[in-house]
Design brief:
about 120 residues, mainly beta, 4 strands, globular
């Protein structure tokens, strides 16, 4: 899916905690487009990561606990090792205690010099 930011440049997503697959630590992909209909729009793609301790806490719960085998931890993921510590979400329990919440600020320089 996609969202258009509000006048403050903010977008809010509600999602499930990601699963994992061999060779990769849990992560969420995201893409920012300044003008998807333009030939000169700026596009930035990256990933957000989670602290291993939080993933350990999540993966002992249903339905995640049904998947067996060893998962890849952050330091075992080549993409994470290339700067993932700067893209790790600081997750806290939601106020209603029925989930988690995180905020991640991203600043883009979309001036002509930066493009």
């Amino acid at each position: 899916g996609y969202q258009i930011t509000d006048e403050d440049g903010k977008a809010e997503f509600i999602t499930i905690y990601p699963g994992w697959y061999q060779g990769r630590t849990p992560h969420i992909h995201f893409k920012i487009r300044t003008d998807p209909t333009s030939d000169r729009g700026y596009e930035f793609t990256s990933q957000l990561f989670f602290d291993d301790d939080l993933s350990d806490e999540i993966y002992v719960q249903e339905p995640y606990s049904q998947k067996t085998g060893r998962r890849t931890y952050n330091e075992g993921d080549g993409i994470y090792r290339s700067g993932g510590d700067q893209l790790t979400l600081q997750v806290t329990k939601a106020e209603n205690e029925e989930g988690y919440t995180a905020t991640f600020d991203i600043g883009l320089d979309t001036s002509d010099d930066a493009l």
